[in-house]
Amino acid sequence: MKLISWNVNGLRAAVSKDSFAWLDSVKPDFLGLQETKASEDKIPSEIYSLGFKEININSAARAGYSGVMSLVNFDTLCTKSLFFDDNEGRVLEHRFGNVVLFNIYFPNGQKDEERLSYKMKFYANFLAYLDELKAQNFDIIICGDVNTAHQEIDLKNPKANAKTSGFLPIERAWIDELLSHGFIDTFRQIHGDEVKYSWWSYRFKAREKNIGWRIDYFFISESLKDRLKDAFILDEIYGSDHCPVGIEIDL
């Protein structure tokens, strides 16, 4: 099964740039989109013509902000956030068989201390919820824009960004904690210390110069480790300041 995650930074803008043409060749079974920035009545009609069996939407209460969408070719029981007051449209949770699959747009903490605090509370609540699911012996997959680069190899200029939200010690420590609770960073599992990024600023020709960050992830519970076949970053695909990331896994 091929699962892909992509922060599109505006669904309507992505559609207007024909940014989904690559789906014809990649053919994912699951496509989790983040930062869709569109209420359900504003979803472009082209999305419903992409050939997916199931489309799930969680839009923010605030217009033109945040939002996640999952396009799925298999049956799931889908709910919005069960661990956080989600008026920002950040979470879709899918259950099928013994698997719980999350599509999440994690908060960005760069605006101010209040938003950083919000981000860290979201992180903490989510990890507590994951612990509950693991105690019930669910297999878990997490995909989305986590808005944090984990290690120095996950961004081009780590020293210059050491005091920037997205690479703060407390944010990076949360990913350490997630891994210590029995989760695997799938890209690192497959590719070791290979340097590859998933987000580039629109400024200063950052993508052209490959001055990027790896902040989009697939994490899986250790119970799925032997079923993981591949992990990849599709940095040749444009249409957003992020590129798609994905995994192949036997489910």
From TrEMBL:
The active site is at Y105, D145, H242. GO terms for molecular function: DNA binding; DNA-(apurinic or apyrimidinic site) endonuclease activity; double-stranded DNA 3'-5' DNA exonuclease activity; metal ion binding; phosphoric diester hydrolase activity. It comes from the Bacteria. Residues 4-242 form the Endonuclease/exonuclease/phosphatase domain. The record marks D216 as: Important for catalytic activity. Its cofactor is Mn(2+); Mg(2+). Probably binds two magnesium or manganese ions per subunit. The record marks H242 as: Interaction with DNA substrate. Its EC number is 3.1.11.2. Gene3D superfamilies: Endonuclease/exonuclease/phosphatase. One of its GO terms (biological process) is base-excision repair. The record marks N147 as: Transition state stabilizer. Mg(2+) binds at N7, E35, D145, N147, D241, H242. InterPro entries: AP_endonuc_1, AP_endonuclease_F1_BS, AP_endonuclease_F1_CS, Endo/exonu/phosph_ase_sf, Endo/exonuclease/phosphatase. Keywords: Hydrolase, Magnesium, Manganese, Metal-binding. Belongs to the DNA repair enzymes AP/ExoA family. This is Exodeoxyribonuclease III. It comes from Campylobacter geochelonis. The lineage of its organism: Bacteria, Pseudomonadati, Campylobacterota, Epsilonproteobacteria, Campylobacterales.
